[in-house]
Design goal:
Blueprint lengths: L11 H18 L7 H11 L2 H27 L15
């Protein structure tokens, strides 16, 4: 993705989002949303209800963070970090 040539600082979230969109956009584009959600979202956009849209994004972000945290905690007990070999010290 080309860097911005303006003096405005880059938005790391926007850059990250665009990277994810480029990488997973086709897969997620094929994923159906629950019945009625696209129409509801379209209505929110048409009414300019930014507060409701931000709430939806925050909720999705929070749920994703919780799932990621839970998965990480579950894996903690399964993943063994390699340990360096112990050397024998003789006195």
């Amino acid at each position: 993705m080309p860097k911005s040539t303006t003096s405005t600082p880059a938005n790391p979230y926007a850059e990250w989002f665009e990277q994810l969109r480029a990488e997973y956009g086709e897969q997620l584009g094929a994923m159906p949303l629950p019945d009625g959600l696209p129409e509801h979202l379209r209505g929110l956009i048409e009414r300019g209800d930014e507060e409701a849209i931000q709430f939806m994004v925050k909720l999705a972000w929070q749920l994703g963070a919780q799932v990621g945290y839970a998965a990480g905690r579950r894996e903690e007990g399964r993943v063994q970090m390699p340990q360096p070999p112990r050397s024998k010290v003789q006195a």
